[in-house]
Amino acid sequence: MIIDLKYHIASLVAVFLALGIGIFIGTTMIGSDVILKQQERLVMSLQEKFDSLREENQKAAETIAELEAERALQEEFNRLVFPVLVQGKLQGRNIAIINTYCKEEHDFLVNVLRMAGANVQSLTGVNLSLLEKPELHQEITQLLGLEGESEQNSVLQTFARRLSLALISGRDQEFVGFLEEKGILKISGSYGLPVEDVVIIGGRVNKDDVSIKFFDLVLAKTLKSNGIKVYGVEDTKVPVSCMRYYQSAQIPTVDNIDTIYGQFALIRALEGFPGNYGVKDTADSFLPPLS
Fold this sequence. Notes:
Blueprint: H1 2-86, E1 94-99, H2 107-115, E2 119-126, H3 134-143, H4 152-169, H5 173-181, E3 185-189, E4 197-201, H6 211-225, E5 229-233, H7 243-248, E6 253-254, H8 260-271, E7 276-277
Parallel strand pairs: 1-2, 1-4, 4-5, 5-6, 6-7
Antiparallel strand pairs: 2-3
């Protein structure tokens, strides 16, 4: 009887154990189905988002390609039409260019002005940063007759006046030659030739650079006092703009000379339509009057 009871208890345990295992397996299988369905929905959602993004990307690529093609056509149009628009507009005008923003070359401006019929007598690049070298500073102060003068502002002002007068007269060759030898000046063309207009190309890297005030403005004022018409220009994306300084000197300005629109604006200004042109806050209008 005792044996039978043991077997009965064992049977009951086995049944309950089997039932527990069955419940566990069933629950696990049901859980797996739920998780599987959730994964399927997640995959489908991700696939839909991916397809949507791929479609948007394709449309964006097509739009970019269309814009690039349109830009290429616009540039070709500008290249063909610009010479026709400016041809002969500055015929016989004698112009000099002084570039005080030595970070960029602006030889293209020479070609543009010549395209309009102007005589570009000289292109001068001025690297004012070299004046900060102690050994050069001392030599230049002696050459400028400022021995013992340590104030950089005085050196810049005197330098600007001497350079202006040298450009107009062709004199002071020792001074000009020394500056060329030291790399402070880079001159193409000749000084002393007839000049009616001077274009100053400005822009600076450092907002604390005082040379705009003590060199560029003195340059402009000295030229103006000698009967020369002065124009101030700069590229669209110079780190520090010179436009407000130039405008304070009452000279026409163009703030996007690196574009065909800025070049056209300069030519119109030289024709007799002075103003402040370009795309920055300092501009009064995009272009001068067209008629």
